[in-house]
Each structure stands twice: as structure tokens, then as C-alpha cells.
Specification:
- It is extended and about 120 Å long.
- The protein has a six-stranded antiparallel sheet with strand order 5-2-3-4-1-6. A three-stranded mixed sheet has the order 7-8-9, covered by helices on one side.
- The protein has five domains: 52 residues; 74 residues; 82 residues; 35 residues, no CATH class; 97 residues, no CATH class.
- It is 34% helix and 24% strand.
- The protein contains ten helices and 14 strands.
- It is an alpha+beta fold.
- Strand 2 and strand 3 form a beta hairpin.
- The longest helix has 27 residues.
Length: 405
């Protein structure tokens, strides 16, 4: 706002004002009046610079991180902290017990045993929070000698670690909170609370996802009560039948209040069962479904699912530049394709329709690879057409056939 106010302008205005009072004053550079006004003009310019900074830091759209945090705190918001990665470790012999807290290293990172999953399988948590813990390609080594331990390997990423929330992502969340109010189990409430769970990278919420069932179809027909009384079934099953009949007969069964939540993990891959269970427990524990024990309101029965992988096979004709062949360009082509697939996965949560793998996008990315002169006759899953994925599926690269020309 005050960018145009400079030292030269300020000094000129001050000298002009002095000459208006006494036109006989010597106002040339180095004169007494000039020496008296110049330092003050410098300080006034610094003041205007500070005022400009204050204005920028006052408003959330221009504030730096520290002042954005202060502004967001007025609405009870703060940047999401970094969270550690949780991996699955398998050991042999499977009968060997490990103590909770037993430490292992992978490369430069250390992990500790945080939970026993089953015989021979343990949950290990990275001691350093952030995405770095998601990379478990190194060799796993126990930090202290474990008697009887033969092998220990990481077999899965259960809950991806996340870095501290980026400033611009936090800024967007702040403005999203102003534009859409999270309240009482509305869509925004679900999105806000589930996205805040460590390891979740995106969410889709489907209201009354069993809405294709007519409410009248849930009313029991004549003779149902007699059949339930006479049914030959185990005691627990018969008790369940009576409960369901009583609910239906009293019009307590409804297709409303049923919510389906689909998640993707923070690496934009299909989530592990451990992450799905974590979200299910946080939102609406299965054993207390609909009771409001989690973040979901009373009466909302929530089912949490994960996005599914859809294998995509590709084939194309390639013309290479001189002294290049498929083996030379293959790693870079695969990186380009996987990069495109990750871009699609990153947009999944914001798309109302299913994702589409497009031939034009594939070819344009492959053409950027050094060594590739031309590409043609591209097919996706043996079809020379764009490939719409099933709803709530993300693409995963399958076989790649490059026909050299």
C-alpha cells in the first residue's frame, strides 16, 4: 500500500514545506536545512515500510506463517503437527516375543516396537516424525542384541507419517473454514475431522449410501413375528432376529443416518487395513455403531472404506532417438507414468466423478523423456481409448509393452 512512498519523495515534501515558510532558505544538498530534514525522511520511510508490513501481516491471505498461525488461532485452528510413520515388521522365528519399546534402525532412522499384531508380526513406530519414516527400503537392524532373533523385515506401511502442515495448505484450510461451516455431522464436519487423522490424505463422504433401499421395504410383512418365534436358530441369532423385527415393526429402521466414508492415505495410495480400522474407530467404532462414541453424531452409522487399486496395462509404439533403446529409457518412462498416476490420485478427493486415465496425458509425458522421439498407437488395457476407472479406484501401473520402431 505504501510502496510508492520513498525517501526522495518524503525529503522533497519536507523541504518544500520549509521553503513555503521561508523561501530564502538554502535547501541544497549539504545545507543546514537539508541536513536537518534528511535523517527524519529516512526514519519516516522506515515507518512506512513497517506500516506496509503490518498491513500484510494483519490479513490472512498475505500473512507470513507466524502471523497466520496467530490469526487462525482466533478460530481455534493451528497447523497440523508432524506425525510418525507406523510400519509392520515380520520376524523369524515367529514364536520369539519382542518387548514393547524394543528399538530397530533402518538407515539413519530408528523405530520402536509399539504393538504386537499377531505371532511374528509387530507394529513399529518411527522415532522421528515426518514423511521420512515412510521410506523403509534400507536393511532393518536391531539396535540392541535380541537373543534368538534370526530375521526382521518390514512388510507393510500401515500409517504413513506426515510432515508439519505446509503454510499454504494451512492457509487454504483457514479460508475453507470461513467459507464452509463444520457443524453437527454435516459433510464439512466429516471432511475436517477425518482429514485431521494422521495418515489420511483425502476423504469422500457419501450420505445415506444405502438410499436405494425403500423405507417401506424395511417394514416386516405379516407372519414375520410368528416365523421369528418358531425359527430354529442358535440363541444369539434368534435374539438378533427378534431385535431386528422389533426395530422394523416399530419403524425404527431407516435408510437415513447411514454414512459411507472412503479414504486415501497421505502418500496417495490405497490405505492399509490398519489405517482404515484407525479411522473407523475414531469416527464410529463398530462395536458402538451409531451411539456417538466417535466423532460421528449419534444416529450416524458410519462405514469406512479405502480407495482400491485398479491395475492399468499400457502398450505403445516408440521411436527412439539415435543410440537410445527401451532399456535405456525404461526407468524414466516408468517414472513419468507413475508421476501421472500419482497426480490423478492426488485429485481423487476433489473429483465427483471417477478418475480417467487419458492417452493424451500419457503420451505427452512420455514424449518429454530424453531418448524418445515419437510415440503412437497407445492402448490402455488393450483398448485404444481413454480408460475411466471404477468409482473410488486409483490407477496402479501394471504391464508396460513398448514396441520399438
Amino acid at each position: 500500500m505504501y510502496e510508492s512512498v520513498t525517501y526522495e519523495q518524503l525529503l522533497e515534501r519536507m523541504l518544500k514545506k520549509a521553503l513555503e515558510i521561508n523561501g530564502k532558505l538554502d535547501a541544497r544538498e549539504g545545507s543546514l536545512i537539508w541536513l536537518g530534514q534528511a535523517p527524519a525522511a529516512v526514519e519516516l520511510q522506515n515507518l512506512y515500510i513497517a506500516l506496509d508490513m503490518v498491513l500484510n501481516e494483519t490479513f490472512a491471505d498475505t500473512a507470513s506463517r507466524d502471523y497466520l498461525i496467530l490469526r487462525a488461532a482466533e478460530r481455534g485452528l493451528s497447523p497440523r503437527k508432524a506425525t510418525p510413520a507406523i510400519l509392520e515388521m515380520t520376524i523369524t522365528p515367529a514364536t520369539l516375543p519382542l518387548e514393547i519399546g524394543e528399538r530397530f534402525s533402518i538407515g539413519e532412522l530408528n523405530y520402536y516396537v509399539s504393538k504386537e499384531l499377531e505371532s511374528g508380526k509387530y507394529e513399529i513406530t518411527c522415532e522421528k516424525a515426518g514423511e521420512a519414516g515412510n521410506d523403509y527400503t534400507g536393511t532393518m537392524i536391531p539396535i540392541e542384541y535380541v537373543e534368538g532373533l534370526e530375521t526382521c523385515t518390514v512388510t507393510a506401511l500401515l500409517v504413513p507419517g506426515e510432515d508439519e502442515e505446509d503454510t499454504e495448505v494451512f492457509r487454504k484450510r483457514y479460508f475453507d473454514g470461513l467459507n464452509a461451516k463444520a457443524f453437527g455431522g454435516n459433510r464439512t464436519d466429516y471432511l475436517e475431522k477425518i482429514n485431521a487423522i494422521s495418515g489420511v490424505g483425502g476423504v469422500k463422504v457419501y450420505r445415506a449410501w444405502n438410499g436405494d433401499i425403500l423405507p417401506a421395504a424395511l417394514l416386516p410383512p405379516d407372519g414375520t413375528e410368528e416365523w421369528v418365534e418358531q425359527a430354529s436358530a442358535p440363541a444369539l441369532v434368534k435374539e438378533w432376529l427378534k431385535t431386528v423385527f422389533a426395530a422394523a415393526d416399530n419403524r425404527k429402521l431407516t435408510v437415513g443416518g447411514a454414512v459411507k466414508v472412503v479414504i486415501i492415505d497421505s502418500t496417495f495410495s490405497a490405505p492399509s487395513e490398519a489405517l482404515i480400522d484407525l479411522v473407523q474407530t475414531a469416527v464410529d467404532p463398530i462395536e458402538n455403531a451409531g451411539e456417538g462414541v466417535g466423532t460421528a453424531p449419534i444416529g450416524h452409522v458410519v462405514t469406512v472404506k479405502g480407495v482400491l487399486d485398479e491395475t492399468v496395462d499400457l502398450a505403445f509404439d516408440v521411436t527412439y532417438q539415435n543410440e537410445w533403446d527401451w532399456e535405456a529409457v525404461k526407468p524414466y518412462v516408468l517414472d513419468a507414468i507413475n508421476g501421472y498416476f500419482k497426480e490423478l490420485a492426488e485429485t481423487w478427493a476433489d473429483q465427483k466423478e471417477s478418475l480417467v486415465v487419458r492417452i493424451s496425458q500419457l503420451e505427452s509425458r512420455i514424449l518429454r523423456v530424453s531418448g524418445i522421439l515419437d510415440i503412437s498407437n497407445t492402448t490402455i488395457n488393450e483398448e485404444a481409448a481413454n480408460y475411466p476407472l471404477p468409482l473410488d479406484h486409483i490407477p496402479v501401473l501394471g504391464a508396460v509393452v513398448a514396441r520399438g520402431l
